[in-house]
Design brief:
This protein is globular. Helices cover about 50% and strands about 10% of the residues. It is of the alpha/beta class. The longest helix has 19 residues. It has 2 domains: about 150 residues, 2-enoyl-CoA Hydratase, Chain A, domain 1 (Alpha-Beta Complex); about 50 residues, Lyase 2-enoyl-coa Hydratase, Chain  A, domain 2 (Orthogonal Bundle). A 4-stranded parallel beta sheet has the order 1-3-5-8, with helices on both faces. A 4-stranded mixed beta sheet has the order 2-4-6-7. It holds the Pfam family ECH_1. InterPro entries: ClpP/crotonase-like_dom_sf, Enoyl-CoA_hyd/isom_CS, Enoyl-CoA_hydra/iso, Enoyl-CoA_hydra_C. It comes from Rhinopomastus cyanomelas (Common scimitarbill).
Length: about 220
Amino acid sequence: LRLDEKVRVVVFKSEVKGVFCAGADLKERAKMDDAEVAHFVKGLRSLMDEIAALPVPTIAAIDGYALGGGLELALACDLRVAASSAKMGLIETTRGLLPGAGGTQRLPRCIGIGLAKELIFTGRQIDGQQAFSMGLVNHSVPQNSEGDAAYQRALALAKEILPQAPFAVKMGKLAINKGMEVDIASGMAIEGMCYAQNIPTRDRQEGMAAFREKRPPQFIGK
C-alpha cells in the first residue's frame, strides 16, 4: 500500500460482524514466556507505527468492539468513524497490563492527557457516542441492520478525500504528523518544507487553471 501510487485512502474494517478488533488473544499470550511477550508486543508496536506512517489518509471503521490493541489499531489511523453502539477501550489494566502498542502515546495526543489517563487507569469501555463527545472518533453513526454503518460512513468520508490533490493531501498529512512532535516554530519550518515540495507539482498548476477556468480540477497525483 505504501508504494502503490494508485492508493489514495485506506479504510480499515473487520470481516467479523460486531467486532472491529478485540485485541490480543490472552489464551495465546498466557502460553508465552516473558521474553516472547516482549518480542510479540514490540512487533505489534512496529506494526502500528507502520500503519501510522502510511503516506495516504487512513480511516478506521469501528462497527463493533475495539478493545486493547484493537483500539490502538484505530488510534494508529488518521480518522475514526464508529457506530454509536460500538464499544471501545484500552482495557489492559483490567488484565494486569498497560497499553503496549502505542495506546499510552496516541490516546493522550488524540483526546488530551486527563481523559486519556482516566480511560487507561480505569480500563473503562465507552460507546461510539461517548467516543465522539470526547473527540476520540470523528463521526458516530447509528448502527444499521447490516452492521456496517461505520464502514459506510468511512467510505463516504473517503469519497470526500478522493477528489482532492493526492500529493497535497500526502504533504498535509506529513506536515501535521511531524509538526505535532515538535514545538510550533519547528512545525512551521516543517510546513514550509512540505509546501515547497508541493509548489512545482502539476496538480498545483491544474488547481490554479481550474479555478481560473471555473471548472472542476482533474488531479493526477503528479
